Each structure stands twice: as structure tokens, then as C-alpha cells.
Amino acid sequence: MSETVTIPSFAPRPKSRAARLSQLVPIAVLLPTMVATGIYIFVFVLWNIYLSVTNSSILPVYDFAGFDAYTRLWRNPRWTTGVWNLALFGVLYIVLSTVVGIFLAILMDQKVKGENLLRSIFLYPIAISFVVTGTTWQWILNPSTGLQSFVRNLGWESFEFSLITDRDTAIYAVVIAGIWHASGFVMVMVLAALRGVDTDMVKAGQIDGASMAKIYRRIILPTIWPVLISVFIILLQFAIKTFDLVLALTHGGPGISTTFPAMFVYDRLFAAGELAQGAAAAVWMLIGLVVLFLPILALNWVIRRQKGAVK
Amino acid sequence: MTAIDTIPNLDRKKPLRPSQVVGRIALYATLIVLALFVLMPLAVIILNSVRFNDDILRESFIGWPTRLTLENWGVAWGEACINASCTGVKPYFWASILMVVPATVISTAIGLINGFALTKWKMPFAGFIFVAITIGVFLPPQVVLLPWAIALGWLGLSKSLVGLSLVHIIQGTCFTTLFCRNYLINLPDDLIKAARIDGAGFFRTFWKIVVPLSPPIIIVTIIWQFTFIWNEFLFAITFSSSDFRPITAALMSLNANDTGVSEYGFGSAAVLIAAIPPLVIYFLGGRYFVRGLTQGAVK
């Protein structure tokens, strides 16, 4: 902070009951947020959990009916396929976006001319909605209109690129669109972290004759860990919430081959009239998020402790 | 952070060896190829928005325009049929604006004043509030979707502009409070103390000291709230109806209708209309956009 501030002078006021009352002002200011957030986070989540153990179908009912909705869920192929797709997509999306992002960041860190322009180009997809991303990639990946027909028109008649219309591979179309959307974001995060690396350490390594690969592995990677953890957390929650991207790209198809848990929840709640089952599926999503988050947060905490209060 | 342009000083200016020249060429070639790949989808839909649909169908979705037309833009804006009402995306665009602008301004203002109260005043349960707000940022929206739907029904706000805006304001406040808290916690306490000694109360201190020092975080927060709410889809589709529908929800219906004919020309224009507001903000406020990304994480 280099800004200098001139403090406006205020006329001194005598201490009074009003002055003491004024100490309650900040609490009063926070109160609406506390109430609203409290309802949103605790009441709503508990309410949803409660609805998941009722018999609610089209309308909510509040009589306890056990965990029937939870067990039925795992017999529903739409749900189990969705969970499997999320696991496959989540791993590929997070790992590949991170790898591509780190690769881009390392390239961008080599004193590149036009860095600002390149960064703007790589990052712009993050400003674009999943609906737009999904729609555009649907057109491009659609074999009868997009890339396949483009290459065939160039003269390569036997060219095949029809991931999106094949049950077994359509999920990779979602992965491609996801990586396109996220890798610039990873690049910017990693690049900012790289710029915070201690250059003296790097120089010392170079003087000692360490290879660039070794310097990256031994000196740079350890210092950018916290950023990688943040990236991981953000991508993980993008992955779990995956909904509009798939809806626009494949609509869950062909068949139900690219259905996702978030789509299942929406379908049960607002199309199938199975409120309890939709609520139960949402609870599983929350459980999944928490189970994956806790070890990461613990790891993050340990790393921060070791580095000694990074704030 | 002014470190954006300081580069690790690995080698001072020396004449490059031939192997290094090859390395530089490979470096730039890789970057340019990847940049073109990232730009490709945007370029394709921009080109398609000025091509005739017949040309797109005959040639390919990916292609250079042989003849130009601006008709697609007019059709997408004012005539295209979405769910059997042929109004184009115009009413949905304005619905999004009506929702996004107040929701962004309100949630940013609340976030800033919350951040001030949380960091510069002794607050009971401050740690607990902070944790609760952080949870609010990460909570999967599916878990609160059904309670929101029921509660908005009780309030008589289901599927309305006010209802959806309320959802975004409450959800967004968690995000803005976290952002502003992380920024204001670095503001020197002495400034606040000095103002208090001079007899300034909460609001006066906020207005005279905190707000003038906060433009960086205000801009970052506004950019992110605007982009997030504009692009949001799940709440938009759940809490809207034919009377009021944000553009992301309308776009999905436009491009998912199975009329048998594929209207890629005005479809592309409609996609671009939906993408333009956040893109304009991104290119105008790019520096702040990046700062918002990195700030939350590095701290």
C-alpha cells in the first residue's frame, strides 16, 4: 500500500449514552447478513436433509420415512452413471487443466514478448458462461457440422472425429470443453505464484549447475503449492457443480451416457416430481464435496504451518 | 501487488546461442498455436454470426464467410423464436441486466460494509461468522435448491425478478464479504483508530476512510459478481418463467429446440449477445479481473 491518506478531522464529541450505543452499530450492520446467511447455509441445508428422509414426491411432506430415498438412489442407473461420469470427468478435468495450465505458465514465464496480450487470450474463456461454452463446443464437435466435416471438406475424406455422438466417448467431449474453459485460469494463478518465487534461490541453483527441470521441481514447485491447492479446490467445486456445460454440450446424451449428479438432482426435483430422491442426491453431492475437501484443507493447513504463517 | 511485470532475472542480456534461438522459436510457436486454439471457438462463432445459414450448412460450421450478412444479429436480437414466443433474445437480455445490476451493486455494498465491521470492530463470534461465510461460498447450490424453491413460494416471489435477485444477493454476499474482508484486513488499524479518536462513528469512518481506500476491491468485486450472476444458469433456469427469464436460460432453450432446421447463423449471434457483457467487462477490467483471481488464493 503506497497510498497516502489524509484523515479528515472531525469535531470532538462528548462521550454520551449515544456514543456507547454506537458500539452496537457494527453488530446491527452485520445482523442482516448473519441472519440471511445463517438461514441459507444452516436452515436450508438441514431442511433439504430432512426432506430427503420423507416421502415427498411432487409436493413436500414432513413425515419421517427413513432412508428409503438414499437406497433407491443407488439402484437408479441415471444416478450411478452420473456419479461414475463425475468421477471420470472430475479426475481428467482437474488433472489435465492443471497440467496444461502449469505448462502454459512455465512458457509464459520465459520473458515472453506480448505477455499481456497472450494472457488475455488464454484467460478469456473463464469470463464466458458454461452455457455459451457448451453450445459453441457442441457445434464444433458435432461431426456433421463441425471439425469433422471441416477437415473432410479440405480433402481428407476418411477423417473421423465423432467423440460427441458415441456413448463411450461423449464424456471426453465434456472434458475438452472443460479444459478449454479452465486452463487459462490455472495458468494465471500459477504464473502469479511463479512471480513470487525467490529469485535468489533460483540463481543459486543455476550457479550450482542445476538443470532448469530440477530447479522447477526442487525450488519452484514447493513454493507454489498453496496456489495449486487453491486451484484444486476451485476446479473441484466446478466439477461437482457441472450442470449447464453438459446440458448445452450433450444434454446428458447420447442416451444417458453423459448424465451428471447435478442433472439428476434437477430432474428429480423439477421434472420427475421425486422431491425426496432429489434432496437425497443433493445430500450425496454435499457429502462428496466435504469428503474431498477435508483432506485438502488439512494438507493446506499443514503446509501453511510449515511455512510459518503466510497469512 | 506490482510484481506482475517483474520477471525472475535468470540471465542478463547476452547474445543467444543457436540452440537458444531454436528454443525461442519453439517457445513462441507453441504459445501461438495454443493461443489460436483457445481463440478458435470465439472466432468461429463471430464468423458464423455474419455468414448465411445456407452457407454454413453447405460448407461447414467452421469456415470463412464467402458472403457477409448482418441479418443474423437482427433476427437473434428481435425475431428468433424461443419456447414459441418469437421475440429474439432482447427481453431476456434486459431481464438479465435488470437482475444483474442491482444484485451486483447491493451485494458489493453489503460485502464492503460487512468486511469493515468484521475486520476493524470487535465482533462477537467473528471467527464463526467468517467460517459460515466461507462455507456459503463453497456450498453446492443443489443442496439449497429445493428449500429456496419452497421459501420463495411462501414469500410469493417464486419465478420472479425479485425472487431470483434475492437468491443472488444472499448467495453473493458470502462471496463479496469474503473478498472485502481479505482486502480490508490489510488496511492499517491506526487510520480507523485515529478517526474514532476524532469522534467519528461507524458509518462516518466507513464513508470517509474505508470507501476512499477501497476502489481496487470494489472494482474486483463488481467485476466478479457481474460475471458470475450474468453467467449463472442453475438458479436462472429454476427460478424463472416465461414472464421473466435471464439470457442464459433463454439461450439454452433457443439452441435446444428440435425444429429440425439448424439455425447456426442467428444461433451464433445469440450466443455472442449472451457472451458480450462479461467479455466487455473482462477486456476493460482485465487487470482487476486477474487481481481478483490471484488475490483470493495467494492470501
Q: How far apart are the termini of chain B?
A: 12 Å
What would you call the shape of chain B? flat
Write the CATH homologous superfamily of the largest domain in chain B: MetI-like
CATH topology tier name of chain A = MetI-like fold
Number of helical stretches of at least 4 residues of chain B: 14
Could you say how many structural domains of chain A there are in total? 1
Quick one: biggest sheet of chain A?
Answer: none
**Tally of DSSP β-strands of chain B:** 0
Number of helices of chain A: 13
Task: Kindly report the average pLDDT value of chain B.
Answer: 85
The level of helicity of chain B is: over 70%
Number of strands of chain A: 0
The share of residues in extended strands of chain B comes to under 5%
Helical coverage of chain A, percent range: 55-70%
- Gross geometry of chain A: globular
Distance between the ends of chain A: 17 Å
**Global Rg of chain B:** 24 Å
Subcellular location (chain A): Cell membrane
Family (chain A): Belongs to the binding-protein-dependent transport system permease family.
InterPro entries (chain A): ABC_transporter_permease, MetI-like, MetI-like_sf
Keywords (chain A): Cell membrane, Membrane, Transmembrane, Transmembrane helix, Transport
Features:
heterodimer; A: 311 residues; mainly alpha; MetI-like fold; 13 helices; globular; B: mainly alpha; 71% helix; 0% strand; cell membrane (chain A)
Write up this protein.
The complex is a heterodimer of chains A (311) and B (299). Chain A is mainly α and 311 residues long. Chain A has helices at 17-21, 25-52, 68-73, 77-108, 115-123, 130-141, 147-153, 170-194, 199-207, 212-240, 244-249, 261-270, 275-307. In chain A, 68% of the residues lie in helices and 0% in strands. The longest helix of chain A has 33 residues, at 275-307. Chain B has 2 domains: 16-78; 90-298, MetI-like fold (Orthogonal Bundle). In chain B, 71% of the residues lie in helices and 0% in strands. The termini of chain B are close together. Chain B has helices at 18-48, 53-58, 71-78, 90-120, 126-138, 142-154, 161-184, 189-197, 202-213, 215-231, 234-238, 247-256, 264-284, 286-298. Classes of the chains: A mainly alpha (311), B mainly alpha (299).
